[in-house]
Fold this protein.
Amino acid sequence: MAAQMASTKVPEVRDITRIERIGAHSHIRGLGLDDALEPRQVSQGMVGQLASRRAAGLILEMIKDGHIAGRAVLIAGQPGTGKTAIAMGIAQSLGPDTPFTALAGSEIFSLEMSKTEALSQAFRKAIGVRIKEETEIIEGEVVEIQIDRPATGTGAKVGKLTLKTTEMETIYDLGSKMIESLSKERIQAGDVITIDKATGKISKLGRSFTRARDYDAMGAQTQFVQCPEGELQKRKEVVHTVSLHEIDVINSRTQGFLALFSGDTGEIKSEVREQINAKVSEWREEGKAEIIPGVLFIDEVHMLDIECFSFLNRALESDLSPVLIMATNRGITRIRGTNYQSPHGIPIDMLDRLLIIATSPYTEKETRQILKIRCEEEDVELSEEAHTVLTRIGQETSLRYAIQLISTAGLVCRKRRGTEVQVEDIKRVYSLFLDEQRSSQYMKEYQDSFLFNEAQTAQMDTS
Amino acid sequence: MDDSAQRVLAYLTEVEEAAEDVLADKQQIVDLDLKRNRNREALNALRNDRSLNDKANVCFGNMFIRLPKEKTKTMIQKDQEQIDKEISELRKRLKAKVNHLNELQGKPELKGYNLSPLSNEEIKAINSILKR
């Protein structure tokens, strides 16, 4: 019981963190470009930032064509100018088939795993391998099952199974093993089943529509399907996309297959990775696999230290390397782990490899648009004046602060049973919650009464 | 008819022809599978036949001919092999034809369509990730 609870709990916890992270950009559906890669002013949840979006669109096209595997892109700009939004837009427009891995720069610092291991895993999660599975199956509707029990009561049972499609009908002789699995699956006349030719595994697809009347009194859970068309013995081909990391994990023997579910995969030996690389390139040469270079997005990249950057430098040169997209909001600052200053806190040799996209602050009109989109996303109705006031707040303080006021103002509005957020509601939450500037102002005024006051060394060490 | 209409007509004819080609092949696979299943039934019947008679009545078109059982068996088995080969050949050709049809219709090429399949052991090895 306890084990069962634990196993059901793990995915739940994971889900919540995922929703939380995307939450702020849940309105992004793509990059908002037209067919000629020209950005539209407002589209797919994106507003403004035309130049950066166009640049991102170009990169996106190259990723789709598989042109720029092993390259790196840096999105640089002030806080709240849509860097993460652009990365999300790229992720959304890549489609489900291209792997996209997002991680924040601080996520790689863990006691259980070295920094380079965390980065290697992220890299390998962003590379997909497309493989094909081919099976011969017999697919048909059961017309009749006839099982003869031996007269003595012991000995092997024999029987006959009649299957049909819309085109043909045939009789199979059944051995005792087949009979056993048929009765185990509770197959009856009228079921549509498939039999895997290689393993003899039987699976029930549902009940045939033509027999629907026979099962009139059945519950809603009975699923009705059409009688299969065409030949009885079919070939089924399924194309799967798996990531290199997933193959690593199942082949890392000390972990066993359970490692996939716990989420804590520990470290993977480099020999295992080398074996997998060799196997995958062997498959590729035999035409059994295609490599899909995906995208690895590292947010807050200035949180990485000098060791990580040198690892990235090296990893980008490997022939199995995804497109690396990084984002940072820092100017010229100290590179973590050194005493050297560098633009964006990234070493010059690394910067040299990057395509850099800059984002610029939003104009008033754009801020207004974004707030409107967020209101729709959070299901809050805003009156015209309140919208204007909120836009003003967004311009004066920060866009993030204004967006946070939306849902709180929505709550205040609901509390007084209003349908539309008015200026009063905005004023109320504005007085309740301080923005960054007012908070610092407050600190300066009352610093003497705070504990551990060290106003002299107020410069924050962020690197 | 003016020029553009002529061109549209030619294009549509081409698409229809390609589609017809695909359908014909599909039907042929169905017909061959039908025959394969009948042969299989016949082989089963021969195996289960416990009469002392060492000859069987075999139907050729409209006529029943008495043939030795052994000979009938090898004959049918040979036919079966031939059918299996033909079906796999047809399937291979069908792939190229479907690709051609998709291209004519301006549809995107199917992903991973031209991959060769992994072997059974390889699939078994990575099965745990496929069954998510």
In short: The first helix of chain A runs from residue 2 to 23.
